[in-house]
Each structure stands twice: as structure tokens, then as C-alpha cells.
Specification:
Strand content: 5-15%
Radius of gyration: 24 Å
Helix content: 40-55%
Distance between the termini: 62 Å
Largest sheet: 6 strands, parallel
Structural class: alpha/beta
Number of helices: 17
Strand order of the largest sheet: 3-2-1-4-5-6
Number of strands: 14
Shape: globular
Length: 436
């Protein structure tokens, strides 16, 4: 099949590459000429495990192409995916200007029947707005389908190639059959393609992400309570997670969730409720608790250093919002860095993939280390913000030699509290006993 993908961010590029991998002829469209030129040369503009291999293979096989021309994209594809940004607006709602602006341009350029697919995460009713916007510019027949993505950054390629389910929101038999044909190679193991109306499909994505964000936030609340009463959150988590009604995933406490999806989607669903006169009390609490959780380590750090961080030096391990990505959107590390700088502290950071993105935000306000051990040389304390695998088994002898003080504030609970006590470190984690 011939497919065009408008937008080459995380969702668009993974979508286009994986569709090409199953033999489709895919044209990816982006307005950034420099980015398009680099992609044509086989350069992947984002870090996502395994994407580079598929990306280069499909370029060589002449199945994956790139252009800056929307008109060319419309001529090429029988199915047109919209994978455009829907950033958070000032009031917390999703900004649809990119999506609707593109829809208006499509209306001016469309010449024959197309299936226009909303792949971006969009509020309920967006498919209707896209349909109205295109129809206001043309009399050509088309259909608009809602096809939300459920890709986890760091696992996006696997999630696309082996989806747990595919949701298609459409009231058109013609469009539905084309979408089922496109996705058939991805569900050969029997996982379902779920057909529903457009509004239900749009809400499914928001509901799923908001539920997972609520689960994380609930566990963070439990962790904070554990510290007050002397319980161990690891034990509580094990006891909860073995209940099949709850499950063991998304029960790990930490310093809050970040990224491109959870923060934005929770706020957008909350705002959508407000727009129709419904208040999501649970989501309001999730937003407030998560905002607080991102800097929950700061009061502990201040207390340890007698409320004076001026001139103190801190090493930070992990900058991305999660491991296996270079995405720093809403990453807790950014909030911690800002708070430390406000208090006159010096900061040295290390992350396997996200350093350049952080440098674009903080410039020379902080120091960028070449390795995890360089980042702790002569520091007063180490702060762990992202659970990259390389941080899980450090050389504690080397840490003792490099650090000025043997102090660790762990926002991701990477180490066993008993084992690290034997290493001689002051260790403050989330929802567990503080050891010194």
C-alpha cells in the first residue's frame, strides 16, 4: 500500500519506518528541510532503540522516502497519517493548530479519495473538526479515521511491530477495510483490531494514559506515607502487585512521571472535562501530586546540608524522563536542576543519550560530564533521576574515591537498602528507610 506520514517526530518516524518494514511504500513529510535532507542520507533525528536499523534498511530498499511537500504526500498516499504536534496550551488543553492547519491545507490540495488518519493524541471531537475543516475547502470525497498510538518511548519499535491492540475509530466501512488491510501484518498472532466510533477512539488514548499516570501517582503517595510510618514501599509494592486485579506494572515509586504523553494527556483530559462542565477530581489530584513529587528530593537535600546549598556541588545521573530515550520533556531532572541552581548550587550531569537536549536548555549554567564517574568527581552528593541500566551496578569503591561526600539521593530506588548500607553511603530513596 502507498502511505504518507505528515510529521516526523517520535510517533511519525516510528510509524512510517515500521509501515515500510512490512512492504508498504511510505513517504514521510516534514517542513524542516535540513531534517529531511539528513533523513534522506540515512540519519535518524531521534534516539529510539532499533529504529536506526529499520530506518536505514527501508531507505536502501526504496520503501521509505522523505519530502517537504504536502502536495507530494497527498499525491503519493492512499492513506495519510497526521502525526503532528499537539502541545499543551496555556490553559492545559491540547493545541490543535498544527493538526487543523494541516487539515485546511489538505482540503486545498486533495484531488481524489483519501483516508486521513489522526495518529496524534487529540481531544474528543477532533476527527469531526478535521473533517469539517477539510470539507470547507473541497468537495472531494474523503474519510477521517482516529487511530491513536500506544507507543512507549524506548520500546516504540517493538510496540508498533507487535501491538497488544490496534484501535480504529471510524464510521466508514471503506476506510475501516483499508485500515484493517494496512494493519493485518501486525496482528498475525491474534491480537485484536478494535473498531469503534471516532470519539471513543480519541478518548481511549487519554483514558489509558491518565489511568497509568494515576497508578504511578497513587504509588508515589503510598511511598511518601511509608516514610512517615516506617513501612517499606518495596514490600508494599510486592504485596499489591501480585494481586491479579492490580498487576505489578506501573507500581514503582519515584520522583514523578514526565515525557511527552502523561503530563500533557492528563491535563488535556482534565481540561476537556471542564469544557463540558465535568470536573475530574482524581485527575486534578494526579496533576498536583506529580508536580510536587518532581522536586520531593529537594527538601531532603536542603535538610542534609543545613538548608544552605550555596557553593555545594551535585552530580546528577539521568536527564531523560525515562531510560532508553533522549526525550527530556517534563523530565524530573530538569525541575531538580532548576531548584538547585536557584539555591546557588553547582551541577554536573551525565546521561547516555539526553545530554545535547539538556545543553540546549541550560547552556553553560551546568557542567556536562563525559561519563557517569566524571559527573561525581569532588561532588558533595549524587542525585539519581533516571533508571538507566548502567547506573544499577556502579563501582562503589570508585564512587567513594571520586566523591567528596559519600551521599546519594536516589529518585528511582535503584539499590537495595541493606547492600548500600554495607557500602558506607548515606542513602535517601523513595518510600524506604534512610540509611546513614
Amino acid at each position: 500500500m502507498k502511505v504518507s506520514v505528515i510529521g516526523t517526530g517520535y510517533v511519525g518516524l516510528v510509524t512510517g519506518t515500521c509501515l515500510a518494514e512490512t512492504g508498504n511504500d511510505v513517504l514521510c513529510i516534514d517542513i524542516d528541510e535540513l531534517k529531511v535532507d539528513k533523513m534522506r542520507q540515512g540519519e535518524v533525528p531521534i534516539y529510539e532503540p532499533h529504529l536506526d536499523v529499520l530506518f536505514q534498511r527501508n531507505i536502501k530498499a526504496n520503501r521509505l522516502h522523505f519530502s517537504t511537500s504536502l502536495e507530494e504526500g497527498l499525491e503519493h498516499g492512499e492513506i495519510i497519517f497526521l502525526a503532528l504536534p499537539t502541545p499543551e496550551d496555556e490553559d492545559g488543553s491540547a493545541d490543535l493548530s498544527y493538526v487543523l492547519g494541516c487539515a485546511k491545507d489538505i482540503g486545498k490540495l486533495i484531488k481524489n479519495y483519501k483516508v486521513i488518519v489522526d495518529k496524534s493524541t487529540v481531544p474528543v471531537g477532533t476527527a469531526e473538526k478535521v473533517k469539517e475543516t477539510i470539507a470547507s475547502e473541497t468537495g472531494v470525497e474523503f474519510d477521517v479515521v482516529s487511530n491513536p498510538e500506544f507507543l512507549r518511548e524506548g520500546f516504540a519499535v517493538d510496540d508498533f511491530l507487535k501491538p497488544e491492540r490496534i484501535v480504529i475509530g471510524s464510521n466508514s466501512d471503506r476506510a475501516t477495510e483499508l485500515m484493517k488491510k494496512l494493519y493485518k501484518p501486525f496482528v498475525r498472532s491474534g491480537n485484536p483490531i478494535i473498531i469503534m466510533d471516532e470519539k471513543s477512539a480519541e478518548l481511549t488514548k487519554y483514558a489509558a494514559n491518565s489511568f497509568l499516570a494515576t497508578k504511578i501517582t497513587f504509588m508515589n503517595e503510598i511511598a511518601n506515607f511509608c516514610e512517615k510510618v516506617g513501612a517499606d514501599v518495596d514490600m508494599v509494592r510486592a504485596g499489591m502487585g501480585t494481586d491479579s486485579r492490580i498487576g505489578k506494572r506501573f507500581l514503582f515509586p519515584g520522583i514523578g512521571y514526565g515525557g511527552s504523553c502523561f503530563p500533557k494527556d492528563v491535563k488535556a483530559l482534565y481540561k476537556s472535562g471542564e469544557n463540558v462542565g465535568y470536573k475530574f477530581d482524581i485527575l486534578e489530584s494526579v496533576i498536583n501530586v506529580n508536580d510536587t513529587q518532581k522536586t520531593v528530593l529537594i527538601p531532603r537535600i536542603e535538610s542534609f546540608f543545613d538548608n544552605d546549598l550555596s557553593g555545594k556541588s551535585f552530580g546528577i545521573w539521568g536527564l531523560a524522563f525515562k531510560p532508553e530515550t533522549d526525550d527530556i520533556r517534563e523530565a524530573p531532572a530538569l525541575y531538580i536542576i532548576r531548584e538547585l541552581l536557584k539555591r546557588g548550587a553547582e551541577v554536573k550531569v551525565f546521561d547516555p543519550e539526553a545530554m545535547e537536549n539538556v545543553k540546549n536548555k541550560f547552556g553553560d549554567q551546568i557542567e556536562y560530564a563525559n561519563s557517569m564517574y566524571d559527573s561525581v568527581k569532588d561532588v558533595d552528593a549524587l542525585i539519581i533521576c533516571t533508571e538507566w541500566s548502567i547506573f544499577r551496578t556502579p563501582d562503589f569503591d570508585r564512587l567513594r574515591k571520586e566523591m567528596k561526600n559519600q551521599v546519594i539521593f536516589d529518585g528511582r530506588n535503584l539499590y537495595d537498602v541493606k547492600e548500600i548500607k554495607n557500602e558506607g553511603f548515606y542513602y535517601s530513596s523513595i518510600g524506604r528507610q534512610i540509611l546513614s
